[in-house]
Amino acid sequence: MLRRLTAQPTHRIVGTLLLAAVIAALLGWLAPAAIAKPFFILVGVLAAAAGAYLFWSIDPAWSISAGVALAVFNGNWSHVGLPGGAGLAPDRALLALGILSILVRGPGARNRPAVPTGPAHWALVAAAVYAIGSAIWAGTVFDKAGGFLLIDRFTLMGFVLFTVAPVAFVTERQRQIFLMTLVGLGAYLGSQALFQTINADALVFPKYILDPSIGFHVDRARGPFVEAEANGLALFACTVAAVIAAVTWKRSGARWIAVIVAGLCAAGCLFTLSRAIWIGSVVGAMVALAAFAELRRFIVPVMTGALLLVITAFAMVPGLQEKASARRQSKLPVYSRVNTNTAAINMIEDKPLLGFGWGRYSTESLPYFWQAPNTPLFGTTANVHNVVLLNTVELGLVGAGLWLLAVLLAVGGAVIARGPPELRPWRIGLLAIAVQFAIVLNLTPLVYVFPNILLLLWAGVTLSWRARPAVAPGRDVVAGRPLARGSAG
User: What is the pTM of this model?
Assistant: First the structure.
C-alpha cells in the first residue's frame, strides 16, 4: 500500500510538507533558545497538515479505524503533551476527516455507494435533535462538559459513525483494516493491563496511567482511560475482535497472534477488578454462544477455559485473588449506586416528561438525596451510575425513550438482520458486545468515548452489506473496476 501511495503524484504534497517540517525542526534545534519556539510551532503545523492531507486522501477505513483506536486516549491527550480540547484531539480529528471524506466524496472515497438510511437513522436524528434542543434550553450546549457529553455519553459521534460505517467498510478488505486495528489495540490494552497488575511499571505506557492524581481506580487495570470500567469494555470488545480474527484469518501465524491477544484481553477484563465488567463479559459471551446454533457446543469449553484463566491468574499473579475478593466484598460502590439511583428516581418523579435539561443532574440533584435507614449517605457528589436513569433525569421520559429506541433499532436491527455469511461473525460479536454494554450501562456513568462509539460503529459495519451497489460480477464493489486475482471484494 505504501508503494501505491508514494507513487501517486498528489501524495508528493505530503512528502513536501514533511520535509519542510524536518527542516524547521533542524532550524529549531540549531537556533538560540529564545527564537527556537516558532520553528517548533511550524513543525507541528506542517506535520499536522501532512497528516490531515494523507488521511483525507487515503481510504477513510484507515482514518476512522485509527481515530477509534486513538479514542482510548480521549480526555487524556494533555498528559502526553498533545492538545485535546474542542476538535483538536487527534482521535476526533481523524474521525472527522474520515466522515467528511465519505460525505463529500473526497479523494479516498470516490465512487462509494450512497449512504443507506432506514428507520434507525430517522430515530437517531429525532433523538439527536431532542437532546440538542434540551441542551440549548438548559444552557449547557456550549458548556465544556455538557457539549462534549452530547458527543460522548449521548454519543452523537456514534450516531454519525453508524450512518457512514456501511460505506466506509463496504468491502472485506476495508473490514479487515478495522479488524486488524482492533487486534492491534487489544495487544496494547491487554499487555498494559497485565503490566499494571504485576507492577511492571517500567513497561506501562504512557506513564500518566500510573499517576494516582489522574483519573480513578489507580490500584486496578485502568489502562489509558484511567478508569477500570471503560478499560474493561474496550478489553472485551478487543477480545471479541481477536476471536473473530483467530477464526477467519487464513495465515496460521496471524491466527496464533490473534489467539494470544484474545487471551491477554480476556485476562485484562479480570484484572480490571470490576464486578460490572466480570458480569457483563460472562453474560455477553454466553448469550452470544447460546443465540447461534453452531456455537452452542462451545458453551462448556468456553466456560471451562474462563475458569482455568481465573485460576491460573490467581495462582500466578501475587495478591490478585485478595484484591478480587476485596472488590467483591466492597460496599462503598454499592452505597454510591443505591444513593445516586434513588436521587435520580426522585428527580424523575418530580419532572418525568421533559426532565431537568441536558447536563443539569450535577447542579440539581443534591435536594433529592435522602438518608436511608440501612445505607450510609455516600456518593452525593458522584454521577448516576446508570446511563438510562441519568438520561431520563436530564431528558425526561420522552428524550430517554427516543435515545433508547434509536440505539435499539440501530444495534438490535444489525444483530437480527440476515446478511451474507462473511458478516455472520460480526453479528455474533456485536451481540456479545451489546449485551456486555447493556449490563455495564446500568452500573456505570459511561462517559468515555471509545466504548460508546465502538458499539454503534460495529453495528454499522455489520450492516455494510446494505450499502453494496449492484455491479457486474468480477468487478470491484466500490470502484466498479475489474478485481485483481485473489483480491477481496
Answer: 0.85
